[in-house]
Design brief:
about 5% strand
């Protein structure tokens, strides 16, 4: 890469950092607050002040002590539960005495746009595009700056941004011949959200044994550390919460996956329970419902089928083509019990690669169809609330599946061409 090209990449990164910071302003940090409160209450002997005691439905409600704490401070904000492993509550217990939630939110409001930009650079390195790299980065960050897939987690200071960065770092390091570092990065991602474990299984099926072993060693060490510092009862509470989540159908305009797509067409309105954050001055709301046994079976079958398909795909292709990875990221999240739109953040960053492999007009058409439903203007809650929820679910999932199909088709086509030319 030339000095001029590197200078352009730095300039583009700075410009989009300013744009992302300006677009978000002072982050709301509601999602980050759950980690903060978990750290604040970690030393409490009552596990119920970190993980809400088990209920039949996952209502997205935090422990009562958190609500009392926020009301006592006079802060008007949504308060969400802590659904991360206990390790992070322990780590946050060292952060909370050092600063305030407001200051911590401002710090993360600077770090997270940097992580988005670094993630775009990693996606660029993974794909090794033929189009000029400054063009790739401009398209990638241009899409990010106008999409709620990025703006919502930036506004919430959502830890998923770090998960996306670590996931892409793990993929990039492994493809670049540093599987130990790659496995370690993926293990750290899995210490926040468990689903990167599937990516390690994909590595194993594809023959990346060193990366898989590294993931197992670092992941095992992090898991053991978590049990040592937080104790098994807190982990039992965490696993119980995950079990309740898997049995609950949560429907929201920001929740893109198979389960809510099925639910919006099959669960009658009378069986849906409205939940909101009005008690603490928030303005977010969603619907929850109990999954029937038939629903649970369909959901489990979809997850098993998708996992089997991904492992067979990895074994057949060796994950040689980089565009297989955004497909895998979308596929895993789409069949998960609870996937918010920002779970697909990393996959969106690969869209400029379409201009590498398709006619520019065709690539532009596909990219627009994929991103327009999540453009912040289109996704504005007042505009979306005027649409029937069935149409919202169909449009958003159709755009997501189109993106996944484009990645898979281009990857398999490119792999076939490479094999025949070899």
């Amino acid at each position: 890469m030339t000095v001029r090209s590197m200078a352009l990449l730095v300039l583009i990164s700075v410009i989009f950092f300013v744009m992302l910071r300006t677009s978000v302003g002072v982050p709301w940090s509601a999602d980050l607050r759950s980690m903060w409160l978990a750290g604040s209450f970690f030393s409490d002997v009552d596990i119920g002040t970190v993980y809400r005691p088990s209920e039949q439905l996952f209502s997205m409600q935090p422990p009562d002590a958190w609500i009392d704490s926020v009301l006592a401070e006079g802060i008007k904000t949504p308060v969400y539960p802590f659904i991360y492993p206990p390790l992070w509550a322990w780590l946050m217990s060292f952060v909370t005495p050092l600063t305030t939630m407001s200051e911590f939110g401002r710090i993360m409001g600077i770090i997270n746009p940097c992580l988005v930009i670094l993630s775009a650079l990693l996606a660029m390195r993974i794909t090794a595009p033929m189009i000029p790299r400054p063009v790739f980065l401009t398209i990638s960050l241009g899409l990010a700056s106008g999409s709620i897939v990025f703006l919502l987690p930036l506004n919430e200071n959502q830890p998923q941004i770090l998960v996306a960065f670590l996931t892409l770092l793990g993929i990039e390091r492994t493809r670049s011949g540093a599987p130990i570092a790659g496995g370690a990065a993926m293990a750290f991602a899995a210490s926040l959200k468990l689903y990167p474990l599937v990516f390690a299984l994909v590595w194993l099926a594809a023959g990346y044994r060193s990366a898989t072993l590294s993931f197992a060693v670092f992941g095992g060490a992090l898991g053991l550390l978590s049990i040592v510092v937080a104790g098994w009862p807190m982990h039992a509470a965490y696993l119980s919460e995950l079990s309740v989540i898997s049995k609950t159908l949560l429907m929201s305009r920001a929740n893109f996956s198979l389960d809510p797509l099925i639910g919006v067409f099959t669960i009658p309105q009378s069986a849906q329970i409205p939940i909101d954050t009005l008690v603490t001055g928030g303005d977010t709301n969603w619907m929850v419902a109990q999954k029937s046994q038939a629903f649970l079976m369909v959901s489990a079958l979809a997850q098993f089928t998708m996992l089997a398909f991904l492992l067979l795909l990895a074994r057949r292709t060796g994950m040689r083509d980089p565009l297989l990875w955004p497909f895998v990221i979308i596929a895993v999240s789409w069949v998960s019990p609870l996937s918010w739109l920002y779970h697909y953040l990393a996959a969106f960053l690969f869209l400029p690669a379409l201009f590498d492999r398709l006619d520019p007009k065709v690539a532009l058409s596909i990219v627009l169809l994929c991103v327009l439903p999540t453009n912040y203007v289109m996704f504005d809650l007042e505009l979306m609330s005027a649409l029937d929820s069935h149409w919202v679910a169909l449009v958003n999932n159709a755009a997501l599946l189109l993106m996944a199909a484009a990645y898979l088709w281009l990857a398999l086509r490119h792999d076939d061409i490479r094999q025949h030319s070899g």
